[in-house]
Input
Amino acid sequence: MTHIWQGLRSGDWLTDARMRGYSLILLAICTLALVGWIAASDGLIDRNSKPIGTDFSNVYAAGTLIWQGRPAEAYEPARQHAAEKAVFGGREVPFYGWLYPPFFFAVAFLVASLPYAWGLAIWLAASFAAYLAAMRAIVPRPETLLIAAAFPAVFINIGHGQNGFLTAALLGGALHWLDRRPWLAGVLIGLLAYKPQFGVLIPVALLAGGRWNTIGAAAATVAALVAVSFVTLGGGVWHAFADSMTFTQTVVLEPGGIGWEKIQSAFSAMRMWGAGVRTAYAIQIALALMLAASLAWLWQSTALFELKASALATASLLATPYVLDYDLVVLAVAIVFFVRHGMNRGFHDYEISLLAAAWFMPLLSRAVAGVTGIPLGLLALLALYVFIVQRAVRDRLGSVIEVRGIAQA
Output
């Protein structure tokens, strides 16, 4: 038992060979499961009467409404659901709401120009390639692509036909280019506005770090996206989007219409445990404020950039009440920056084991929460964030002690 504990503490158990082996095994198992899922489907409808790519059906259906000149109807649940059923020849399928800002209609418009299966395949392939490119840019090592591809959140995202790859690619790419090309980083952050709940703390970090060029580029990008959507779709679609936010809040989020086990936030955990809506919001807001304060300190400090980037990626997931398990692809950004820091400066006790647990966690988070009520995803994110801040504090204290030792000598 002592030997096991020492191994967890040092992280020596996670050798390069084991990382490759575990990744290959998981990649093979999940790939076979996905192939079997698709092979058992009937006309792109699986055995559970859900579309292949589930959530992608709302993107594709919204795209068909654009082609028909009726984009605002995507924000009306009954008409959006009718459009989703029409995609599959009128067959009954579950409703997947269109919850995105109007400028994300650009993606919907493009994928709906193709047959459903091709649109889904190209969407996933293109966004997956962007995600892998961002991971490889941050840690340019041969094994990066394998480990990033085998990350369990990848398969959850593929199963849902979701946009976790795009979110991770934009945030990871922005952080990668922040020092070298701040304007490009700002453009990528601006594009991330299609998922506004993940951008709550980004301005806090950029302001604390004095990243004015990036802030300007991000603001200009968002303004351009809004302007283009007004010109191409009209102002009515923005009114429809604003009205639909009430539906998202009161039907999807607050009563847990999609299942508390799928949502990985503090708000969801409180509601799953029986707390009222106000109490859950209070806990979520308190957490967001603590994250904002610690991020502001970290980003104006002398901590190395890898820790700042890892903290921002983790905090972006923690700060919002609406984060699904497929959104945990963004966790790869936090992990890869922390790994880069450890490779450059060495790992402290339990850091390697924690990173491995965080990497594996998306595979279990939904099932564990559903069976036991334990919000494994939330706990893993909180633990990772604490370790990141703790590492920044220790590195800073170590630098101070080193400087004092040199001065005394």
